[in-house]
Amino acid sequence: MSAERFTGSFTQQEPIPEAGIAAALAVLRHGRLHRYNEAPGEVSETALLEEEFAALTGAKYCLAVASGGYALGCALRAAGLVPGEPVLTNAFTLAPVPGAIAAAGGRPVFVEVTEDLTLDFADLEAKTKATGARLLMLSHMRGHLCDMEALVQLCDRLGVILIEDCAHTMGAAWKGVASGRQGVVGCYSMQTYKHMNSGEGGFLISDNAEVMARAILLSGSYMLYGKHRAAPGPEVFAALRMDTPNVSGRMDNLRAAILRPQLPSLGERVARWAVLYQTLETGLQNTPGLRLVARPAEETYVGSSFQFLLPGWSDARIGLFLNRCIARGVELKWFGADEPVAFTSRYDHWRYAEAQSLPQTDRILKGLIDMRLPLTFSPQDVALIARIIRAEAESVGQGPEPAAIAAPRVE
Ligand SMILES: *Cc1c(COP(=O)(O)O)cnc(C)c1O
Fold first, then answer.
1. pTM
2. Which of 179, 189, 259, 335 to mutate to test the pocket of ligand 1 (most atoms within 8 A of CB)?
């Protein structure tokens, strides 16, 4: 019998809902794409989107911007980052996070991650004390939430301001509280591979009036901040408007029109992701040599990606395993590769940040495998993917030590 092969695409997302296409065409037809370009009596798609996302998350205020990375940098500046200041962040994250810190003038200080792929609290405390950092940009990388109640308490005790990068946790929650609501600011991305898709886009949410007013001014609102609806009143802006630079990064009405119809179905999509994730998890349970990441009961996660560990495997063995999987149509990414590949890179590849030593994170990332789970996959697709990974992990894991080979380069 020939080996099973998977033929689906790991990068193919679902189409934009018809309502979003119709709304986008309406914007194109009237031509008022700029968020502050409104006909008399009209409220822009962007202002409505912000109101609706604030309502969805329970936040007082919301600002839509041009990208997730822009949201992160804007949040740091709005929270008072001064140039040269250290900013704590997890060592396991994606390039836009340290990039946003550096672009805002901060110095990334990496904090170790645990075997569960969440922030190591002991190292957070040690790094805070060693650097005197006041800001933590916590990336909920690949959707893994740490104990958010314990983290908020720790941040309060250390006097650290928490900003959340929720690029992978839009729709997730800790003990029922929406991800992004524990920090002073929560930031999201609507880039194609995230949980809502407008190609590019980002949100900031906050309950803090001054921080949000600064973010709105920073985003490039000129003196039109009065057109925002999910925003603090004009008195809050009065004290800040002449002292806050305009760093254009606005959302436009075309993207907002595409996004608005995606909000009501977020819960339904999160439920479908859970089925895919759990199908894969079940299919990989008790595979020798392969460790799954436990998900705490307090966490409502969004299974838009899946991670597992191959602890103690040599680079050559992992390379052979990845090659065998890709030969059968299963595209896996590896955080242990020496060279950065496509979206996957590691803290020691970000050379603009000071060189730092994180032995625990090094050990974990060395065996960390990652994959996307787009909603265009069916549960049957995912069950097939699990059978392929399981068979190759068993065969390569228990086979002889292979000669060194290059890992595949996947997008
Ligand atoms: C995608 C992503 C962002 C934001 O990226 P943009 O491409 O700028 O929208 C931030 N953090 C993480 C972890 C991400 O994956």
1. 0.96
2. 189
